[in-house]
Amino acid sequence: MTDLKNISTVKEDLDQYEVDHIFHSWSYQPTESPKRIVSAKGVRFRDENGKQFLDFSSCFVSHNIGHQDQRVVDAICEQAQTLCSFAPVFSTKPRALLSKILADITPGDLSRTFFTLGGTEANEAAVKICHQYTGRQKILSRYRSYHGGTAASMTLSVGDPRGWAQIPGGTQWVPVPQPYCYRCMFGHQYPECDLRCVKYIDEVIELEGGGEKVAGIIFEPVTGANGIIVPPDTYFPTLRKVCDKWGVLMIADEVMSGFGRTGKWFAMDHWDVVPDLMTLAKGITCGYVPLGAAIARKPIGDKFKEQFFSHGATYAGHALACAAAVRVIQVYEEDALIKNAEKMGNYLLAKSLELKDRHPCIGDVRGLGLFVGLELVKNRETKEPLIPLNAKVIPGMNPKLEVAKKIMELGMIAMAANPSNVIALAPPLIITKSEIDEGIAIMDKALEIADSYVYQ
Ligand SMILES: Cc1ncc(COP(=O)(O)O)c(C=O)c1O
Predict the structure, then answer these.
(1) What confidence tens digit (pLDDT) does each residue in 17-26 have?
(2) Do residues 373 and 423 touch, judged by C-beta distance below 8 A?
(3) Does 62 sit in the ligand 1 pocket, CB within 6 Å?
(4) Does the beta carbon of 289 lie inside 6 Å of ligand 1?
(5) How do beta strands 249-253 and 277-280 pair?
(6) Domain range enclosing 111
(7) Residue 265 confidence (pLDDT) above 80
(8) 271 touches 233 (CB < 8 A)
(9) Domain holding 208: CATH number?
(10) What average pLDDT does this structure show over 355-368?
């Protein structure tokens, strides 16, 4: 038995604890400890050897306001001194305040929130609300999606190899295509396609039992981990009409795309479409304390005044997390970060397009705000992907991971370990032009590795 008071904290022992005692996410369990991070500030962080890195991923697109903002740390400390948490049947000031703020900043009449501990649980809650509200069984979800690691969220993460080990559960799901124009599943081009992918959804809803059976459709407004897929402008307005025709609820998973990431509060704001349910996490607290949320439109929320709401959790609205979220959301406004995301996002996209001119491994560049993806190919003509889809779950050669390793050696992290062929660039919204230049210069060098796999 370990001497709890005198447990060893020397580097070698900490490394061994990592290797022996932790399940590391979405990976074969490592034989060496991952890099240990000891501090972070703004867009940079440091490892235990004192090496500094530029964060071009915002830690899985969560630290939108940057690391260790003193205003948020103070708000958390202040709340901790008063009341860390309390049973959710009671009210706390931070939870009440946050519910009102979310009702104000989210689109339309989204107004009643269930608080969770993170993104996947927010999706679980939204799916349950959707089933309970409509009384129907089926949820449509789009290939190349990621909605989280728990049962229903993972079941709905169709086409993401991380979901292949999942025994379907929590919902009856029906997969439909993405508006992935670079690799359209119908071989069409926008706008001549006349949104074949939405027509397909309309037909699938009918075939699956229409308004009798289909409860909702869940989607990432801008698909994140599976490839920074930005839909064409008419996509969501048209999808809204199809859903209204059948009374099918739209669940917008804004866990990654929300809170200023795309240059507006929420990605759905780009198309003026109000979803019926929206899920949030990551940028809601920027990781200072874990929190997620599922917010519903007023008629949906109101229905549960007469109908039993069959969901709950001990930490539904943890006071520390809600206090952090209130302060984080004020910081977005105080520092005009959403405007900065739009401005710097345009700059990042322009600079990324310049990378495409220099690197034959880049097949496509796309993005919205500070959410930019570089899609890697072996050949631009044939669009042969750099890695097969199963590279994420089959051990062996994955050239994208070699690029990721090089990026880290050069003093930066980007989102490169996701299952798609895309390296996502998503720095904190406080990023400046010169920091973007620094990141692009690192990408310029690291992409040479992927270029070496290109054939003409
Ligand atoms: C779009 C989307 N939804 C849900 C999740 C799950 O969030 P969490 O990891 O907080 O459970 C993620 C995580 O990356 C995500 O990108």
Answers:
(1) 999 999 999 9
(2) yes
(3) no
(4) no
(5) parallel
(6) 70-334
(7) yes
(8) yes
(9) 3.40.640.10
(10) 98
pLDDT averaged over every residue in the chain? 97
**CA–centroid distance, residue 148 to ligand 1 (Å):** 5
- Mutating to test ligand 1, I would choose from 57, 146, 371 the residue with most ligand atoms within 8 A of its C-beta, which is 146
Please tell me the residue having the least CA distance from ligand 1 atom 4.
147
Buried residues in 127-160 as b, exposed as e (16+ CB within 10 A)? bbbbbbbbebebbbbbbbbbbbbbbbbbbbbbbb
Cβ–ligand 1 contact at 147 (below 6 Å): yes
User: Do 88 and 36 share a structural domain?
Assistant: no
Verify that 165 and 298 share a domain, yes or no: yes
Cα four-point dihedral sign 123, 124, 125, 130: positive
Total count of domains within the chain: 2
Tens digit of each residue's pLDDT (9 = 90 or more) over 333-360: 999 999 999 999 999 999 999 999 999 9
417 lies in the same domain as 306: no
Give the pLDDT band (50/70/90) at residue 429: very high
For 199-244, how does the pLDDT look when each residue is reduced to its tens digit (9 = 90+)? 999 999 999 999 999 999 999 999 999 999 999 999 999 999 999 9
- pTM to 2 decimals? 0.98
Looking at the fold, whether 37 and 105 belong to one and the same domain comes out as: no
In short, whether 253's Cβ falls inside 6 Å of ligand 1 is yes
- Whole-angstrom distance, CA of residue 369 vs CA of residue 347: 9
Q: Are residues 22 and 145 in the same domain?
A: no
Which of 334, 368, 392 marks a domain boundary?
334
124, 141, 279, 282, best to mutate for ligand 1 pocket (most atoms within 8 Å of CB): 282
Q: What is residue 294's predicted lDDT score, i.e. its pLDDT?
A: 99
Strands 52-55 and 44-47: antiparallel
**Ligand 1 contact, 219 CB (< 6 A):** no
Do both 48 and 124 map to the same domain?
A: no
Same domain, 79 and 199: yes
Residue nearest to atom 3 of ligand 1 (CA): 147
- Nearest one of 264, 271, 169 to 219, comparing CA atoms: 271
Confidence of residue 398 (pLDDT cuts 50, 70, 90): confident
CATH (domain of 20): 3.90.1150.10
